[in-house]
Amino acid sequence: MSSVIEESKNGAESAVLALHKQFLDSDQPSADLLPFNKKALDRFETLKFPHRKHEMYTFVNTKSLVGTSFSLKTENSVQKSFIEQHIYAGCERSHLTFMDGVLCPELSDATALGTDVKIGSLVEAIKSESFKKTLEESIKQENDVFASINSAFMKQGVMIRVDRDKQIEFPLQILNVSSGSKGGPVMTVPRVYVHLEPLSELKLIIKYVGDGENYFMNSVQDIVIEDNATLTHVQIEADSTDAWHFSKNRVYLKRDSKYLGYQTTNGTQLVRNHNEVWLSEPGAEVELSGVSVLEEDEQSHQIIRVHHEVGNCTSHQHFKNIINDRARASFDGTVVVN
């Protein structure tokens, strides 16, 4: 079942505001996250949807996306056999499954990770005053309107924390499944926070798949990597062919830490990956790589901003595209040296 609204004559922003009001009037919001939802909506109203001359959307035409009236999924189901076929070897007991943006404990198994990896809810995480301030600041300073929409509608979220000096043997897979809708386009907003404590290591695989069509995957991942820690992050986008997929990775690296990010994309009408990385202390290192395989009218766009906030940091970017038919791809990478 979906709750659907029509875009008002005042434009696409008004449609989002109306949908948010419907969201607030439903039983979906979390009382603990509600203040963040409202602040994010304020930020959305400030940013507004991008025009073609917007510096982060120079090569991306979002007219069709923002002109679509989306609803929010309120009910879903998926066969366990469908989940099992998308869990990678080695992750049978180290995976989390999100269904339409909501974590499904009954379809998840993280027993192989033991006690060295703490997995909890965002509601629990904001009980920490420092994390609460971090979340508030990220919403206040958000520069991507679609990430603001994610925050405005987030009703759940997951915090993953790796203990100090722990090298996790098994890769952790997050499977994001979108069931779509036959009644009209739907939007899902998964939210994940990853925190690696000093000297820790983790391999993280995030895979996006569709068990239906006609959906907008709008995900945000916030990542903090402390001193001498290493995160290998593989992002696999295998959505349905008529899906929209926007993803933002926000990464903060401390002294002598390392982030290895790999992305693969194929088979959707519009993909936009936004990577923002802050190298905040000496010795921090980031490597970003990706490949897109496109055909017909599919599109894939990469926007990358790497901030070298101090000296003695290293960053590498390497992206390739295989393009057929009328498909389009773009790469917009900027390194900012302070």
From TrEMBL:
Q: Indicate the segments forming the SUF system FeS cluster assembly SufBD core domain, all copies.
A: 186-337
Q: Which InterPro entries match?
A: Fe-S_cluster_assembly_SufBD (IPR055346), SUF_FeS_clus_asmbl_SufBD_core (IPR000825), SUF_FeS_clus_asmbl_SufBD_sf (IPR037284), SufBD_N (IPR045595)
Give residue ranges for domain SUF system FeS cluster assembly SufBD N-terminal: 37-174
One Pfam family linked to the record? SUFBD_core
Q: Which terms does the UniProt entry file under GO BP?
A: iron-sulfur cluster assembly
* SUPFAM superfamilies listed in its UniProt record: Stabilizer of iron transporter SufD
| Protein name in UniProt | FeS assembly protein SufD
